[in-house]
Amino acid sequence: MKMKNILFLAFTNMRRRKTRTALTTLGIVVGIMAVVSISALSGGFEGQITQQLSQGLDADILTVIPGGGLIGGGGLTSLQMNDTRLIQNITGVEATLGISQTGTTIYNETGGTLDTRLIGVNFTDLEAVYGHRLTFSSGDWDQLGANDSCIIGYLNDPIAPAGENVTAEVLVRVGSSFVYINVSFIVGGVFEEAGQSGMLPFDRSVFVPLDTYQDLFNTETIDSILVRIIDPQQADAIADEINEAFEDQVLVIVPSAIIDTVSGVFNIMEIFLLAIASIALLVAGISILNIMLVTVMERTREIGIMKALGAKDRTILSQFLSEAVLLGVIGGLIGIIVGLLLAYGMGLMLPALFSSFQGGFGNGDFGFGGGSSFTLVPVLAPETILIAMSFAILVSVIFAIYPARKAAKLDPVKALRYE
Amino acid sequence: MTQPQSLQSDEAITPLFDYQSRTYKYIIEAQNLERTYQMGTVSVRAVQGVNLQVPQGEFLTILGVSGSGKSTLLHLLGALDQPTAGKVYIEGLDLSTLSHNQLADVRLRRVGFVFQFFNLMPQLTAQANVELPLKFSEVPTANAHRRAQELLEKVGLGDRRHHIPAELSGGEQQRVAIARALANNPRIILADEPTGNLDTNTGAEINHLLRNLNQTQGLTIIVVGHDTRLTTVADRVIEMRDGEFVAEHAGGRQVTVK
User: Fold this and answer.
1) Contact residues of B toward A, CB < 8 A
2) Are B136 and A1 in contact (CB < 8 Å)?
3) Cβ of A12 under 8 Å from any chain B Cβ?
4) How close A291 gets to chain B, by Cα (Å)?
5) pLDDT value at position A70?
6) Is-contact B24 B76, C-beta < 8 A?
7) Would you kindly state where each structural domain of chain B is located, as residue ranges?
């Protein structure tokens, strides 16, 4: 019997029991819908996160922090400014920036306050590493010569413009106790909005000369060294060389590695979610098995008639299998469409949910791009659609094999007597 | 003997085997046919030691009460069931030598079944029901369509072709079933109580139709049943009891039916 005719018969049989066909299809629809919406959402989410990460993590900046060696032991406990020379000697390194930071409260001349970070840097190094992305709304690099000059990071409403004085209150160790000390600075400049680079936030920060910072805390050490490299492609090689220079006593953070790790976490999460969604498909398959068995029993007499008329076993078999294929195709198509719609709907709803949580994150420095700019556009790769479709058909056919074989093997005489 | 009249569409139906090349004395022959069913621990001998020779073009009626084994015999003759012992030859072909698929082909092209309860596919129209065996034998769609239409016209249902079985009377359904049995142009019709579910007049009409097909087409027809009116149209009548033939006599062929 020709495929065309088999499909036609399958179709008329399915149309005979519309409700049952619809319910059986529903299982496949739900399963495929879950798979499609999960992979579309997670694809969109991953794209969003890695994009935001790569905006914050400049690909040409490596961060060196003390540590390394074995976990829980070994490694340097601190870095010093001298250490930057070891790094500057490496080919491919353009500039380095040693930084130290702590929390502080800033007071301006009129009594306004701001809780923020006090960051110690060499201004020349800061310009060398980040000069290309930092611009001043007031003041300039050449107004920063003095030991007590400072730069205020971007604020919607700057606490003090260039030329005014600010006072920073910091907690320092004196002997065996901690005391608050007030230090005065002259504002040499105020930055335009610059976001953040790795562990260094530019906005809502106050930059002061590193020497002054170190004197204040009576220390020679720095927290980390930011390394600007010429070619981001060389990041891993340069990271290796830095590790070598420090005898593996430091930790070098490569931005692409962070993005890879995040992507990896997302992929594992996606696989996990898909595994759960596949259970829905499995259940759909079992319901197909169940319904097909009932259908075979109901149609026993018809199967007997077809055999008496000269239908071969494989005609009966392909009859039931093609009904399963049709179920799979219809269920798969609807599932993909509904799944995509669901993903787009969730894509619209989820960001609203996130931004309502954002108040809890304090200053709003972190989180998703600082508010409502976060959008989630589901991303569904064409091959995912193909895989979902084949899965829908595969599941339907696999679970229809047993009932279809049962139908094909029916004894025609017994089948004809069946009431 | 009357020269068989063919339908125009007969040419479209290709026989599986070459009829001409095979020689046989009887179109259907059964030798020492036995069929035993195992019902739990009890063996039921539905057919025991039946010998039968049917010449081509004969209208044979096998009479028997229910349980006499007549339906089982018909199934054995039509390759629908396999004997426990003995042999069936159809057009000289030993059924015991055929594979499962070849037996299906015998049912498809060499015999046509007609049943008491019509056994039409409920979801298909009369036309589609007649086309079904033509689709099994992969007759091209246009030919199958024309063939089914001709056959339905032949059985007097030309205007009822697009009705489903539920919209047809019993007699009409049985006519569709007969048209379907003729689809692949077999030389043998096997009918299992074809009038058993019809009123007297309709039953007589069906008998008349079968008799007519036998005479005009040269079809060999075997009808089993318990309706003694069947004897009036038959060439030969065999009585069956407990799986055995118990009597044989000439039918009332001369008697004019309605």
Assistant:
1) 75, 78, 80-81, 100-101, 104-109, 113, 115, 119-124, 132-133, 135-138, 180, 184
2) yes
3) yes
4) 19
5) 53
6) no
7) 8-25+56-81+112-250
* CB contact (8 A) between residue A307 and residue B123: no
Tell whether the model's pLDDT for residue A372 goes beyond 50: no
Comparing alpha-carbon positions, the chain B residue that sits nearest to A415 is B80
Asked if A308 and B124 come within 8 Å (Cβ–Cβ), the reply is no
Question: If contacts are CB pairs under 8 Å, which of residues 288-327 in chain A contact chain B?
Answer: 301-302, 304-313, 315
A-B C-beta contacts closer than 8 Å: 66
pLDDT tens digit sequence for B63-119: 998 889 999 999 999 999 999 999 999 998 899 999 999 999 999 999 999 998 999
Unique residue bearing structure tokens 């005489």 = A413
Is the Cβ pair B107, A309 closer than 8 Å?
A: yes
For chain A, the three-class secondary structure string (H helix, E strand, C coil) is CCHHHHHHHHHHHHHHCHHHHHHHHHHHHHHHHHHHHHHHHHHHHHHHHHHHHHHHCCCCEEEEEECCCCCCCCCCCCEECCHHHHHHCCCCEEEEEEEEEEEEEEEECCCCEEEEEEEEECHHHHHHHHCCCCCEEEECHHHCCCCCEEEECCCCCCCCCCCCEEEEEEEEEECCEEEEEEEEEEEEEEECCCCEECCEECCCEEEEEHHHHHHHHCCCEECEEEEEECCHHHHHHHHHHHHHHCCCCEEEECHHHHHHHHHHHHHHHHHHHHHHHHHHHHHHHHHHHHHHHHHHHHCHHHHHHHHHCCCCHHHHHHHHHHHHHHHHHHHHHHHHHHHHHHHHHHHHHHHHHHHHHHHHHCCCCCCCCCCCCCCCCCCCCHHHHHHHHHHHHHHHHHHHHHHHHHHHCCCHHHHHHCC
What integer pLDDT is reported at residue B258 of this predicted model? 37
- Flag if B180 and A416 touch (Cβ within 8 Å): no
A1/B119 touch (CB, cutoff 8 Å), yes or no: no
Residues in chain B, pLDDT under 70: 1-22, 253-258
State whether residue A13 sits within 8 Å of chain B by CB. yes
**CATH homologous superfamily for the domain B8-25+56-81+112-250:** P-loop containing nucleotide triphosphate hydrolases (3.40.50.300)
Interface mutation vs chain A, best among B124, B134, B135, most A CBs within 10 Å = B135
* C-alpha distances out from residue A408 to A80, A293, A296, Å: 82, 12, 10
